[in-house]
Amino acid sequence: MVEMSSQISEKLIEQCRRGEHAAQMEFYSLLFGSVYNAALRITRNSQDAEEIAQEAFLKFFKRIDKYYDKLPHIVRRIAINGSIDLLRRRKNDFLEFSDKQYLVEDEAPPPNEDFDADIKRIKEAIDRLPTGYRLVITLRLIEDLSFEEVAAELGITASTARSQFLRAKHRLAELLGKGAGAAATGNL
C-alpha cells in the first residue's frame, strides 16, 4: 500500500472507490487547500485555481482505480497539469525568454528584518517573473519536482529546464535586489 498522510486512511480511500459521497467530501476537504494552492501559484487567479482544483478532484474520483497507487499527491499533480494546460490555452508564451522583456523600472524594496515581510517580498518577486520563469521556479522549488519532472510538465528537455531555472534564479535575485552573484551561489 502507498504511504498516505495520517488523515487519509485506507478505509477512506476504499469508501471513495465505492463512490460514497461522504467519504469523497471528506477526502476533498482534507486535500482541497493543498490542491488549490498549487493551482493558484501557477495561474495566479483564485477563480481559475478553484475551478482547476474542483476539476482535479472530479478527474480523480472518475478514475480513482487508475490513480490508486499514486495517492495522495496525484490530485495536486492533476491540478498542476490543469494549470499549465490553462496557461497554454491562453497562449501565454511561457517558453520564450528574452532579457529585453524583463527590465524592471522600479527598484526592489530594501531588505527587511521581518521574516513575514521577506516572505511577502519573495512571493511578490516570484509573481513579477515572466510566466515561464515563474513556472520553472514554482515547479522546482515550491512543488519540489525534479528537473526531469519539470521538463515533462512543460514539454521541454531536462537541460532546458535546468537552464531556465538558473536564469529564473538570476532574475529573481535581481528583483530582490541581491544581484546575480547571490543567485549563482544559490543564496537567494
From TrEMBL:
UniProtKB keywords: Sigma factor, Transcription, Transcription regulation
Domain of life, source organism: Bacteria
Annotated ranges, domain RNA polymerase sigma factor 70 region 4 type: 121-172
Any one of the GO BP annotations: DNA-templated transcription initiation
The keyword DNA repair is assigned to this record: no
Domain RNA polymerase sigma-70 region: 34-91
CDD domains tied to this protein: Sigma70_r4 (cd06171)
InterPro entries per the UniProt record, alphabetical: RNA_pol_sigma-70-like (IPR039425), RNA_pol_sigma-70_dom (IPR014284), RNA_pol_sigma70_r2 (IPR007627), RNA_pol_sigma70_r4_t2 (IPR013249), RNA_pol_sigma_r2 (IPR013325), RNA_pol_sigma_r3/r4-like (IPR013324), WH-like_DNA-bd_sf (IPR036388)
Family that this chain belongs to: Belongs to the sigma-70 factor family. ECF subfamily.
PANTHER family xref list: RNA POLYMERASE ECF-TYPE SIGMA FACTO, RNA POLYMERASE SIGMA FACTOR
Protein name as catalogued: RNA polymerase ECF-type sigma factor
Organism: Mucinivorans hirudinis
